[in-house]
Amino acid sequence: MRYINEDFYRNKHGGTYDGAGLKALILRAEGLADALTYGRIRAAGFENLTKFQKAAVKRACCLMVDYFTNVDGQPSADVQSYSVADMRVYNRKRRERPWEVAGCGMWAWMELLSTGLMQRKC
Fold this sequence. Notes:
Elements: H1 6-12, H2 22-36, H3 40-44, H4 51-71, E1 79-82, E2 89-91, H5 98-102, H6 106-114
Antiparallel strand pairs: 1-2
């Protein structure tokens, strides 16, 4: 299940993350892309997708890596305020947008959505 590699991320996408964990982040993005498309990428075979779908999946994976490196490890945006003395924590509304729940970022979500592979079948 390799949709992109380190070379594609750096040179074609122009990704700036150059840490030692890049390969792991790429695998994480590819796994998430497959999960968000209900396994349809893997089931169909990446090479059997249309040219447009392949390009969108590749862009989505690169955008997810960018998202992971910019968001992971950052303080939670859900906590509005807290008090140390009486240990109160006030939370904002929980994440409501689907890309926030999925943890992939809006642009990656939109790329995958454009492929038609994310449509839930009843």
